[in-house]
Amino acid sequence: MAKQKAPDTLAGLQVSKTNSAPLYAQIYTSLRDRILQGKLPPGMRLPAARTLSQSLGVSRNTITAAFLQLVSEGYCEQRRGNGAYVSSFLPDALMKPAGNETKPANRTTPIAIEAAARKANAAAEQISLRSKRYIAAQGAAQETEMQGVFKTGTPALDLFPMDIWQKCLKSIPTYKTLGYQDAAGYLPLRKAIAAYLGASRDVYCSAESIIIVNGAQQALHILSLLLMDEGTPVWMEEPGYQLAAQLFRANGARIIPAPVSQHGFETEIALKLDSSAKIAYVTPSHQYPTGAVMPIAQRMALLQWAQQTGGWILEDDYDSEFRYTGHPLPALQGIDTNGRVIYIGTFSKSMFPALRIGYIVAPPSLAPTCAHIKNLLDRSTTIGAQAALAKFIDDGYFMQHIRRMRILYAQRQAALKSALDTWLADLLNIRDVSPAGLHMMVELKAPAPLGYDTYVSRKALRKGVIVPALSYYYTGEEKQQGFVLGFGNGTPQELEAGVKTLQKLLRA
Fold first, then answer.
1. Domain residue spans of the chain
2. What is the phi/psi pair of residue 236, to 5°?
3. Residue 76, phi then psi, degrees to nearest 5
4. Distance between CA atoms of 67 and 325, rounded to whole angstroms?
5. Distance of CA 276 to the CA centre of its chain
6. 4-101 adopts what CATH topology?
7. d(CA 412, CA 43)
8. For 219-271, how does the pLDDT look when each residue is reduced to its tens digit (9 = 90+)?
9. Which member of 61, 68, 236, 435 has the greatest number of CB atoms within 10 A?
10. Tens digit of pLDDT for each residue in 195-223?
């Protein structure tokens, strides 16, 4: 089928109905790349949706969907009654030169492999001691491992296609799962993950860059052993993921809590707090627990910091699959041209937590060292589950499950929002709901004594309802009290019943 061209202002923009990517995604990607390349400068007005739809031979809804995606990520801004414009707040330092697309295999700054090897050997000597610290640190959070209607990070376990999963497990010849395996992971699974990440998350990687691990927590363990010495300063989102903070601290890091805004982590704020940081741990696509999305200007500022200082960015993309409007946001790693982002993913939310399979996408010069540390820790992740997961992905079952769950979780998020508006609007600040993820954050409207949300959380636990306290997610001094409510594993009826229980406790 012949491709059709855009107007002169976007000469060369094309769409193809034979391409497997949706039409709006093709348009979004083309416009985003042109913005990053400087071909569409800040402040430039984009053609009207009607004009562009006529030129490309697609519907106005398709153009509108592409524009909305660009606006949601901060590449463009919508001016009421005057159309869409390229954002004026994009920094120039990290813009890609036009016509200089970088290939994935050459995207990392060279790192002294000898130094990395020395670091790995030194890490090996500390693994026994640090692992004991790590286990002790996790003990503080055991209460949160219980199941419940508002338990965060728990998917709809009863709706997972266990029959298909069992068939995938049984299809793997037993003898192939009995011997020692490559510490980096089962190669077909690494290839499947690389293909999936490239298509769905705009992550640039090959199978050789991927290390399979026992969940995201082991990924953080390996990276902390590799990158953190005693006293290494690490920026942490505040509020943020406390198991990461506890693990980093147990491995010697000095935690620097950096308050997040409506845009998530902001480099400028973090630099004012402490400019000595060597590592930044961030959740840019759906900040945990606030739900904020880091816009492109903030992403570029963080990449610029890493480029100028030689710092490392640990991007935890823990629930990126579940975005309910538009295309899932591209990963920070996908716009990193200097190899400073280490990407961490997991199947605990998209599949089920007991699977215990996650992955690291490391710059090529770090990947062998990460695999070496993985080998020192536990040799390899269970091969049977890896092989079954590779088949589950390759045969299309994974994406089929994800599409089904996106519809379900959008409905459950709406049910929780409705119940909160009905029963607790006078007591809680219910933020604009981010159309993503498996949890919502709410804040107490009235000032409360220190530790009040924890007190309510414990009372709810005695009634069989898990209501995680917001104050738990702070590393430093508490800034705000409230609750973080998961909705993935609760039916609309169960979620409303949980909200009513919380209402009774708060009114008491």
1. 4-101, 113-138+162-398, 402-507
2. -125, 140
3. -130, 165
4. 13
5. 25
6. Arc Repressor Mutant, subunit A (1.10.10)
7. 39
8. 999 999 999 999 999 999 999 999 999 999 999 999 999 999 988 999 999 99
9. 236
10. 999 988 889 999 999 999 999 999 999 99
